[in-house]
Design brief:
The chain is α/β, with parallel strands linked by helices and 375 residues long. The protein has eleven helices and 13 strands. A hairpin with a 6-residue loop joins strand 1 and strand 2.
Length: 375
């Protein structure tokens, strides 16, 4: 059961009947210590997301937002960011970072719907997470000792990819004397210099594009490069070039599993280039981490499901499980992520319907769970 939000008191701005944006954000964060998102939509009271569930804010002075309210909130968040204003006007959405000093930092998406503004804000923890706090395997620490190649974190949205990347960068920051350069859209976790020297560049404010930032990185002497996400051909091309020139590259990709991640990367290229791209990935991929977050059965929290695939670059070939065409549907065979999800059902950590919703192959998982139930 989600906690009662309790009374929320919001500070009014000088405009009658409106809330001061920073006070509103701070009040919403006080609802629960596990707030992950804040949502502002015309016709709705402000909402927070806790462990994947939306909760409406309640309390004195809280009322459904008007289109003017959400427009003003968006304006307060954007400030004088001319690029964001242009993106919102021309493309209908924009991404920015925002911070409440001493309180929290946010990744903000503002978009137009039905002619009015809506705002979705992701809360970024002030402390960089470590592998243990995220429930990730301790052996991922060995990735900090890699000297070149590509380490990819994959998963659907809201699966914790950014947190995993931040934890991996922090491992390197603690263990190695080196130069780390990040290219982020926007900057999320703030990394202080530890043993490593860390420079963080934000898309649009510090560099025009990810490919442009990667080209510039070749002249900035980094040992480790983090790219927040690979979204198109040029980013993948430049990431492979960086790995081939002796850099260690970390990045993420929105894909449900490792095979589909490789399929997406290859699919960014023309058909005549795809075999060459597969060969280059075979030489440069070092590890693909696939992860998901599932709601626990009896607690207001989520449990990570992680599969780590190490790629043998010396073989010159991608592992069979990364080649989509070799994967065959079979009612008794589950991919590693679905097998881990099935084990969570067996231990009682996750209920069967939640497991099936989050599975790569729901029908196969349903059949396997049904067989286990009969044993």
């Amino acid at each position: 059961m989600l906690p009662d939000t309790g009374p929320i008191t919001l500070e009014k701005s000088s405009n009658a009947g409106t809330f001061e944006t920073n006070a509103l954000l701070a009040a919403m964060l006080r609802v629960h210590d596990q707030v992950s998102d804040l949502i502002f939509s015309p016709g709705r009271v402000p909402q927070v997301q806790i462990h994947g569930d939306l909760v409406a804010i309640q309390g004195a002075g809280v009322r459904p937002l008007t289109a003017d309210d959400t427009r003003r909130i968006a304006s307060d968040l954007i400030g004088d960011n001319k690029h964001a204003i242009t993106m919102l006007r021309e493309q209908g959405s924009c991404d920015i970072s925002y911070g409440l000093p001493g309180v929290a930092r946010f990744r903000v998406n503002i978009f137009i719907q039905r002619g009015s503004c809506a705002v979705v804000i992701r809360v970024i923890p002030t402390l960089v997470p470590n592998l243990a706090s995220l429930g990730l395997p301790e052996n991922l620490q060995k990735l900090a000792s890699l000297r070149d190649g590509i380490v990819l974190v994959t998963g659907p949205r809201n699966s914790g990819k950014s947190s995993t990347l931040a934890a991996l960068v922090d491992c390197i920051n603690q263990q190695r004397v080196c130069h780390i350069l990040t290219l982020e859209d926007p900057i999320e976790f703030l990394h202080n210099h530890k043993r490593a020297t860390v420079h963080q560049r934000e898309l649009h404010s510090d560099t025009g594009s990810i490919p442009q930032g990667l080209r510039a990185a070749m002249r900035q002497a980094p040992d480790v490069i983090l790219v927040s996400e690979l979204r198109e051909r040029d980013s993948v091309e430049m990431a492979m070039e960086a790995a081939e020139s002796g850099h260690l590259v970390f990045s993420s990709l929105n894909a449900p599993d490792q095979a589909k991640a490789v399929e997406r990367m290859v699919g960014f290229f023309a058909v005549v280039e795809q075999e060459s791209v597969r060969n280059r990935l075979a030489r440069n991929l070092r590890c693909i981490i696939s992860q998901r977050l599932l709601p626990r059965k009896k607690e207001n929290s989520r449990v990570p499901v992680v599969d780590v695939l190490t790629v043998d670059s010396e073989s010159g070939e991608l592992p069979a499980q990364l080649l989509q065409e070799t994967r065959k549907d079979h009612h008794e065979i589950l991919d590693p992520i679905d097998a881990a999800i099935a084990d969570l059902v067996s231990t009682g950590a996750v209920d069967s319907e939640t497991a099936i919703i989050h599975a790569s192959a729901p029908l196969q998982l349903r059949l396997v769970l049904a067989k286990r139930a009969l044993r």
